[in-house]
């Protein structure tokens, strides 16, 4: 199995997982041409994707999905809640599939296991994707950890984990108070310390890759995120990867 990111952050997200000749993209927050260019950087064409699976209806995740999927005839999977929020964008498209946030489904050789997360959307999920031997857990938008989240992410071979903000930078930063409250709230985004606490609660005995994702440009730095996660794992900070908004990250092999 291998995985790579097209970019990560509040301006757009997309992550590709590939195994056994099957390939899916989690979210597409980029425009049609931008997404194709970002895939090309990874050596992929749009037609190489077997599905796009969507976490929730925020535009940095679903914003580019309908146009990209329609243009390239790619099947799309969304929760019924996400469909209720943005389903009209997919009207007339044939291969659009709803799923329940607890129901596992398959994309070719890939097993896709969604799990519900606290976040301010209709039925937001994040995913664990497996191929029968290894698993990657991807969590980009999460207000707070829960036992369901910890069970889903325990024992993964790779993790992409939201480190949205540094709590002090957010509190002392220039965002208006209501936005600060939304981001720091239970249905907002994980700060570095909360992300580290989540990581520390997991079974990480199989973990071979960890990448911090969805970093705020305004309220975080890669060094802050790395330091927090390295503290949880008791490892060197440079072992922690960081997903960049513009560059994403290159293929990682599990
Ligand atoms: Zn987001
Ligand atoms: Zn979101």
Q: Would you write up a description of this structure?
A:
The protein has 254 residues and is of the alpha/beta class. The chain has one domain: Ribonuclease Z/Hydroxyacylglutathione hydrolase-like (Metallo-beta-lactamase, Chain A, 4-Layer Sandwich), CATH 3.60.15.10. The chain contains nine helices and 14 strands. A seven-stranded mixed beta sheet has the order 6-5-4-3-2-1-14. The protein is globular, with a radius of gyration of 17 Å. The structure holds zinc ion (2 copies). One zinc ion (ZN) binds at residues 10, 58, 60-61, 140-141, 214.
The CATH superfamily is Ribonuclease Z/Hydroxyacylglutathione hydrolase-like
- Widest sheet, order of strands: 6-5-4-3-2-1-14
What hetero molecules are bound to the protein chains?
A: zinc ion
What letter string, H or E per element, gives the SSE order?
EEEHEHHEHEEEEEHEHHHEHEE
What general outline do the C-alpha atoms trace?
A: globular
Q: What structural category arises from helix and sheet content? A: alpha/beta
Total domain count:
1
Using the coordinates shown, work out and report the CATH topology: Metallo-beta-lactamase, Chain A
The CATH architecture assignment turns out to be: 4-Layer Sandwich
Q: How far is the N terminus from the C terminus?
A: 5 Å
**Radius of gyration, Cα only, in angstroms?**
17 Å
Helix content: 25-40%
Number-wise, the strands total 14
CATH class equals Alpha Beta
Mean residue pLDDT: 98
How many H/I helical runs? Answer: 9
Instruction: Assess the beta-strand content as a share of residues.
Output: 25-35%
Poorly predicted residue ranges: none
Main sheet specs: 7 strands, mixed
């Amino acid at each position: 199995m291998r995985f790579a990111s097209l970019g990560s952050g509040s301006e757009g997200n997309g992550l590709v997982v590939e195994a056994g000749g099957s390939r899916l993209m989690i979210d597409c927050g980029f425009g049609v041409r931008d997404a194709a260019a970002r895939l090309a950087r990874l050596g992929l064409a749009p037609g190489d994707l077997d599905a796009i699976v969507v976490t929730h209806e925020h535009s940095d995740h679903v914003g580019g999905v309908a146009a990209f999927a329609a243009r390239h005839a790619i099947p799309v999977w969304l929760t019924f809640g996400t469909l209720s929020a943005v389903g009209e964008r997919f009207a007339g498209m044939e291969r659009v599939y709803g799923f329940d946030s607890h129901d596992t489904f398959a994309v070719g050789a890939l097993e896709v296991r969604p799990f519900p997360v606290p976040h301010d959307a209709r039925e937001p999920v994040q995913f664990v994707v497996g191929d029968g031997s290894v698993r990657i857990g991807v969590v980009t938008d999460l207000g707070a950890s829960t036992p369901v989240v910890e069970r889903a992410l325990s024992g993964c071979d790779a993790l992409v984990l939201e480190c949205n903000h540094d709590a002090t930078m957010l509190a002392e930063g220039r965002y208006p108070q209501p936005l600060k409250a939304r981001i720091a709230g239970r249905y907002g985004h994980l700060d570095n310390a909360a992300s580290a606490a989540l990581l520390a609660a997991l079974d990480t005995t199989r973990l071979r890759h960890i990448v911090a994702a969805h970093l705020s440009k305004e309220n975080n730095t890669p060094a802050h995120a790395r330091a927090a996660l390295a503290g949880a794992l008791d490892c060197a900070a440079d072992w922690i990867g960081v997903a960049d908004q513009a560059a994403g990250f290159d293929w990682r092999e599990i």
